[in-house]
Amino acid sequence: MPTRRELLRNGLGLAALAGMSPLLGACGSDDDGASADGTVTITMWHGQENQGKDTLDKIVAAFNAKNPKIKVNASSGGVLADSMLQKITTALASGKYPDIAYIFGPDIANVARSPKVANLQPFITQPDVNWDDYYPAARDAVTVDGKVRGFPALIDNLCVAYNKKIFAAAGVPEPTGDWTWDEYVATAKRLTDPAKGTFGTGWPAAGDEDCVWRIYPLIWDLGGSIVDGSGKKIGFDNDSGLKALQVVHQLGADKSVYADTKPGSDQMYQVFTSGKMAMIPTGPWELPVFIEAKSDYGVVPLPTFSGKRVTIAGPDTWTVFDNGKAKVKAAVEFLKFLTSGDQDVQWATEAGSLPLRKSTANLAEWKQHVDTTVGLKPFSDALAYAKTRPTIRKYPQISEPLGQAIVKMLLGQGTPEGALSELAKNANAALATP
């Protein structure tokens, strides 16, 4: 399975799709979708490889064995998950599309423009779905314009990993869960040593979504929002956006941040695992890499301004497409199974994710996994307070100028005031356009 950094969406496909007219075509099939004997066959494109694929194959086989009237045909769809948007766009245009596909959270709002995407709102009220048991960020990620369009597929969030040896060598106390962004900036500066080639921290600087989503916890913590209540303006064209950009600007000015200008952030993480970076905001997907590199690391929650913990979740989705009522119903039955306790914990532990459900996090199997995986507990705990980006179709028009502003701050170009003014002008103009 590709590491999460390889799967982070770069916004380019999103931007292209946002500029297209709605994915029109024949609405959901009037055909029931069942065969003469009542068997329903559904197609799933999961975009996974390696361990992710192996885990899904086992879960699909278990479901098919228990449900003789439903047959799930699961495959990658011929692409990895980071290319699924283009694959689905082409499939919808051709009229031959799967019943379930793995769609990145920020992409679902534009995919849901198609009338071929099923409305699952009638299903989520069923008691056995137990919709409120999913973490709020996971539910929000599959809800577009008040309608549920799929099931949660994967969820992660950001905390801070740190190198214990660098802290010890500098005589700096290890960070705790109760620290501030001012302390983070000061610590990054203190632990930067040009003579040794050591950086205090790192930040992706390609202007893509991996660069952008890391600043939202700062904005939320300061009372801002990504979009204001009208939906026609950004919600951080104020002190929340300014102070968040000032943090990034100061890291750049102090030359304490490794700004990775190449997409994928590979170099940034290599600097950390080589023992040349003190701290890095990251997600649970990186823990196996740290373990393999034999890094002496710890993990703590993100710093705050207010003292109230906040982080961002990056949920992805199992989006359901309408190929007939029987197929939609069968897809829901399978997704209920896939995301229920035993399978949820299997997917999380084997494929390197986090639980989708609150009840799963309380299972003994998950707790044991947390206890035996260094640094996993802060990520698991953060699910309770993580927020996610809004599922809006014009999100790329916010993400792109914000990414450009962050890169300027990292590279010492311009001021936070100027960067915020420019990005607000561009983003607000796009949001105000019908």
From TrEMBL:
CDD domains: PBP2_UgpB
Domain of life: Bacteria
Pfam families, sorted: SBP_bac_1 (PF01547)
Positions of transmembrane segments: none
PROSITE patterns xref list: PROKAR_LIPOPROTEIN, TAT
PANTHER family with a match to the protein in the record: ABC TRANSPORTER SUBSTRATE-BINDING PROTEIN, ARABINOSE-BINDING PROTEIN-RELATED
Name of the protein in question: ABC transporter substrate-binding protein
Organism: Rugosimonospora africana
Taxonomy of the source species: Bacteria, Bacillati, Actinomycetota, Actinomycetes, Micromonosporales
